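User: Please predict the structure of the protein below. I'd like the answer in structure-token form so I can feed it into my own downstream comparison script.

Assistant: Understood. Taking the following sequence of 275 residues as input:
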Amino acid sequence: MQVSFTENGTVLTGAVLNIQKTFECGQCFRFIPDGDGYSGVAFGRALHVTQDGDAVLLYGVRQPEYEEIWARYFDLDRDYDALSAAFCNDETLRTAYTFSRGIRILSQDPWETLCSFILSQNNNIPRIRKIIAALCEHFGTPIEGTPFYAFPTAERLASAGTEGLARVRCGFRAKYVADAAEKVASGTLDLQALRNQPYEAAKAALMTIYGVGTKVADCVLLFSLGFYEAFPIDVWVKKVISKYYGKSFDGSRFGAYAGIAQQYLFYYERSICGR
């Protein structure tokens, strides 16, 4: 991959990165189609990104911001082709990888990821995006020069409580978000410290939050804390397991990068079967 810094922003050439697949594979909810590309927010920074073939343009991004935020966010230092070749050892996964090539696991903010996947429970992607946008507008801070808002802090949502969260119409999930916010804001749960825990210990810690089960915990571990062995199982992944692998399936069969395999399988099955 080549990185160049131009008047328009940062250009990535030859990166195994497909922005449409990466933003539409269910791992994040704040980037949406916008004209010729996608626009959204991560770590309090607004970004518009486009793609033409293998060239990706991060508009307005200068070298310091690219190196500080976006290189890590898009996981650009990892060789996805090499690691995928190593674990795509069955026909189903090889087919899914070929179809899904270009997906990268985004390295997102843990607090935002936790809230987002709590809100994703028994929900569809358009409504999840709508709720998160309302949450940011009501409780986040405006990002200067853009129509976007930063994701609200745990402290802000803890002070809002369940009653305050009701205004964004997140239903039964409000009490789950409120409990997560209280635990994070009080220091009862240190999300960053989970990076240094073994996988099972980190997962158990997340599941002390009211309403957080195995699927939400695995999503947080995979999409924000660097636990690539995490294998979230939702309705679509259950269909994959039943259709291709059977009851004896164990996500650990894909090893240290099971989470990347999960994203290939999820995106492939959802795409070929319809949304």
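That's the full token string. The two ends are 32 Å apart (CA to CA).
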